[in-house]
């Protein structure tokens, strides 16, 4: 299930320009065009040099036990329709049956392919991470999703979401205005491109032996369950 609006037309820009947008500041996030290849794959050899770091660095804090046998990595965009579908229809079951039971740990990585508000939202989550509230901010973003590029993730709303999860607003706002996590967001997007991901959400299931199993799109819970059980029983 490839997310159609995720496909951007144009050439790859070597660096994404990230500038913070908040109230009286004359700065903003600028979303570049992206050229995405049509076939998702994991390149084992060649210039991309895919390693375990490609999957786990530049992402969120771990959700679940760090000792879990399986790592689930999601590349997502907070404005993405099918990312929101996964969050509401599948993620809770994975959380209850695998993450809370210590079998699976989860990492979220940014792949901002819809618009400037996606980058702002990503930055909001990382700034909340400084206060141990990444996943709370991640959840409130998806709980307030209403579409793509329609203003629900405006800077004003991002401030309101931060207030609702009770972050220290002075520290959070400074983090946003300073663009503290711009490079981390750029690097996560680079990781997604190196994996040749052509839509969001995209998932990678990694076991303790380093075996990587991709899952593309908002697949049903049964798809994740099958792969988890296969890995846990091997």
Structure commentary:
α2 links the parallel β1 and β2 (104-110). The protein has helices spanning 52-56, 81-99, 116-129, 134-143, 155-164, 169-178, 182-194, 221-232; strands spanning 70-76, 104-110, 202-206, 212-216. The chain is α+β, with helices and mostly antiparallel strands and 234 residues long. The protein has a single domain (4-232), classed as Glutaredoxin (3-Layer(aba) Sandwich), CATH 3.40.30.10. Residues 1-46 have low confidence and may be disordered. It has a four-stranded mixed sheet.
Q: Could you name the ranges where pLDDT drops below 50 across 5 or more consecutive residues?
A: 1-46
| Percent of residues in beta strands | 5-15%
Overall spatial form: globular
Percentage of residues in helical conformation: 25-40%
Main sheet: which strands, in order across? 2-1-3-4
Tally of strands: 4
Q: Indicate the CATH architecture.
A: 3-Layer(aba) Sandwich
Tags for this model:
alpha+beta; four-stranded mixed sheet; 8 helices; 4 strands; disordered N terminus
Brief description of this entry?
This protein is of the alpha+beta class and 234 residues long.
């Amino acid at each position: 299930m490839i997310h159609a609006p995720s496909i951007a037309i144009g050439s790859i820009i070597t660096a994404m320009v990230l500038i913070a947008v908040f109230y009286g500041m004359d700065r903003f996030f600028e979303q570049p065009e992206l050229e995405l290849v049509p076939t998702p794959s994991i390149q084992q050899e060649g210039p991309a040099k895919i390693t375990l770091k490609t999957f786990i660095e530049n992402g969120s804090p771990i959700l679940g036990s760090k000792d879990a046998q399986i790592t689930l990595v999601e590349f997502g965009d907070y404005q993405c329709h099918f990312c929101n579908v996964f969050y509401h229809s599948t993620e809770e079951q994975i959380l209850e049956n695998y993450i809370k039971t210590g079998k699976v740990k989860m990492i979220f990585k940014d792949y901002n392919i819809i618009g400037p508000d996606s980058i702002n939202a990503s930055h909001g989550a990382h700034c909340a991470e400084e206060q141990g509230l990444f996943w709370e901010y991640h959840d409130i973003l998806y709980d307030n999703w209403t579409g793509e590029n329609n203003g629900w993730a405006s800077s004003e709303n991002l401030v309101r979401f931060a207030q609702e999860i009770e972050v220290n607003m002075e520290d959070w706002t400074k983090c946003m205005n300073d663009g503290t996590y711009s490079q981390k967001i750029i690097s996560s997007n680079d990781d997604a491109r190196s994996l040749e991901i052509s839509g969001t959400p995209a998932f990678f299931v990694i076991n303790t032996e380093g075996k990587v199993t991709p899952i593309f799109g908002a697949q049903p819970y049964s798809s994740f369950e099958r792969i988890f059980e296969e890995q846990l029983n091997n």
